[in-house]
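Quiz preparation item.
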């Protein structure tokens, strides 16, 4: 497994990964129809925007590559306001069964965040998002709180949890 920056020539592989992630991990907010509407050109533009953001130090994107397949993707994005430039949101997704990939990406992103002056990392997700929550807890994130019934599905409500890591 290799953790590396995303490249412009892997739009198709990233689309495959994202669609598979939504299908395999039912505790995601995204809808498969949302990703089915993306074209290869849309994904290439998204990657290009992220690479440009990395050049300016605003966002950092990593993928886990296992024999040419993306098994996890993660990002750290600085908040925009000048008084919050030391704070970033961390987002990541991991195909079930590839938790080691997710953990390695989060470790890499924590180090990248530190190297770029980020002092506070925020993670939030559905309270039922077991894979992500287990990874951030293992890597020292602390539960800050939750908002009850934040997500409304047709058959249930799910809380949103917030975690923080001070670097």
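Solution:
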């Amino acid at each position: 497994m290799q953790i590396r920056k995303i490249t412009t020539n892997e739009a198709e592989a990233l689309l495959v990964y994202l669609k598979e992630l939504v299908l395999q991990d039912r505790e995601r907010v995204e809808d498969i129809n949302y990703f089915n509407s993306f074209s290869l050109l849309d994904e290439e533009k998204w990657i290009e925007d992220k690479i440009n953001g990395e050049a300016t130090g605003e966002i950092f994107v990593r993928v886990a590559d296992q024999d040419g397949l993306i098994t996890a993707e993660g990002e750290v994005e600085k908040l925009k306001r000048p008084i919050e430039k030391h704070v970033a949101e961390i987002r990541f997704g991991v195909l079930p069964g590839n938790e080691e990939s997710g953990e390695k990406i989060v470790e890499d992103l924590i180090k990248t965040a530190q190297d770029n002056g980020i002092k506070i990392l925020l993670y939030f997700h559905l309270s039922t998002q077991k894979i992500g929550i287990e990874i951030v807890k293992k890597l020292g994130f602390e539960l800050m709180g939750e908002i009850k019934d934040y997500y409304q599905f047709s058959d249930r409500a799910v809380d949103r949890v917030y975690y923080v890591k001070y670097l």
